C-alpha cells in the first residue's frame, strides 16, 4: 500500500514539476508565479551550496530588472551588510570589489565571503550605475542581530560627526556592556544568573533619544537620511540583541523567536524607509535559510512554539503580498564546519534519507526542477502527512544527520514554490584555510 501511494505521488509530481534547463529565461515561469508580491523570501537548504546562491542571485536580478524590486535584505548583520550597500551605491573604486566583503569577519565568513557572490555584486553595482541620474539606487541590507558591539560603535561614530554631546551620552549608556569586552554571550549568561544588571533600559533610552532628534539630525548639512537610518537601526539592533543574548539562557524557542521577530521588525522598518525614498510601495527580496523562510507553522518548529520570518511576513502582509521560495538537494558537497567557530570544510552531503522529500524528488524524471505548491489539491492531499526535510546550517554532522539535520514539514503549507537541484556543489570561500580540500570532500 505504501509503495502504491508513493507511485501515485511520483506520477503526480512528474506531471507537476517544471524542468529547469540552462537558458537565459529559465526563471520566467517563477516570475509569473510571484506576480505582484512585494516580499519575495528566497531560502536555501544549506549555508554552503553554490547552486542555491547562484539561483538566488539570478532570480533577484530578474526581480530587480523586470519587477522593480528595490533592495535585498539578507540573513546577515546590519553593519556588515551596510559596507556592501555603500559599495553597491557607488562608494570607492568599482574594481575594488573586495572592500564590499570587509565587514563580514564574524563566523561563518563563507556565507557572504564566497566566489559565487562576486559576479552578482559586480552586476549589482553596474546596474545601479546604469540607472538614470534622477533614479534612486537599489540597496543591500542585513536583518540579523548578532552585531551587538559593532552596532554600538556605529551609533557612537555617527553621533561623533553630528552631535558630540549625544555621542558622550551614548558612550555612557553603552558602558553598561563595557567590561564584558567582545563576548555578548557572557553578558547573557551573567544577567540570567543575576550577576549583572540588564542593560535594556540603557539600550532603549538610546533609541528614544535618536528618534526624538530625528528631524534635527536628518536636516543637518553633510549627513544624509540614509546615514541617520543606518544609525537608528543600529540602535534598535542593540536593544533587540540585548534581549536576544539574555534569552539564549531561557531556552532555544525564546531566543529563536526574538531573532526572527527582530528580522520582521527590521524588514518592516526598511519597507517604510524605501516607500518614503522611492515614493511607492516597497518591494524587497529576502535571502535567508529555509528554516527562516518557510512558514514555521507548517513544520516541527511551529509545534514547539517557534515562529519564523516567513510565517510572520505572511501574517503581517498577507499571502498575496508574500512569496516563499525554498530549495532542496539530494546529494553533493557543501561548505560547512564541524562546530561553531571552526573552519569551513569541503564536505560530502549524504544522499537524502528514506522517507524524506529529498529522496522523493530524487526519484522524479527531471533532476533539476521548479515545483509550484499552491492551489494543487492533489498535492495537498498527499503531502498532508508530514515528511522529513533536511536543513544544513553552518555546521554539518553527517554521522548524526537524522537528529541534527532533519525535521518534519508539510511542504504545501511551508512554501509557495520549491526549486530542487538533485546534485549540488560547495560554495568556494574567498578565505580558504588548511582544512579546505577542493579535490577530496570529507
Give a written overview of the molecule:
The chain is globular. Strand 6 and strand 7 form a beta hairpin. It folds into two domains: 2-144 and 283-424, EreA/ChaN-like  fold, CATH 3.40.1660; 146-251. The chain is built from 19 helices and eleven strands. With 442 residues, the chain is α/β, with parallel strands linked by helices. Helix 8 crosses helix 11 (225-247) and helix 11 packs antiparallel against helix 12.
User: Could you list the spans in which at least 5 consecutive residues all have pLDDT below 50?
Assistant: none
Number of helices: 19
Could you state the order of secondary-structure elements as H and E? HEHEHEHHEHHHHHHHEHHHEEHEHEHEHE
State the separation between the terminal residues, measured CA to CA. 38 Å
Q: Decide which structural class fits the backbone.
A: alpha/beta
Q: Provide mean pLDDT, rounded.
A: 93
Q: What top-tier CATH class of the largest domain fits best? A: Alpha Beta
CATH superfamily of the largest domain: EreA-like (biosynthetic domain)
Proportion of residues in helical segments: 40-55%
> Domains counted in the coordinates: how many?
2
The largest sheet is:
9 strands, mixed
Number of strands: 11
Q: Which fold name is given in CATH as the topology of the largest domain?
A: EreA/ChaN-like  fold
- Rounded Rg: 22 Å
Label the overall shape.
globular
Q: Specify the CATH architecture of the largest domain.
A: 3-Layer(aba) Sandwich
Binned strand content:
5-15%
In short:
Helix content is 47%, strand content 14%. By secondary structure, it is α/β, with parallel strands linked by helices. The strands form two sheets. Strands 1, 2, 3, 4, 5, 6, 7, 8 and 11 form a nine-stranded mixed β-sheet that branches.
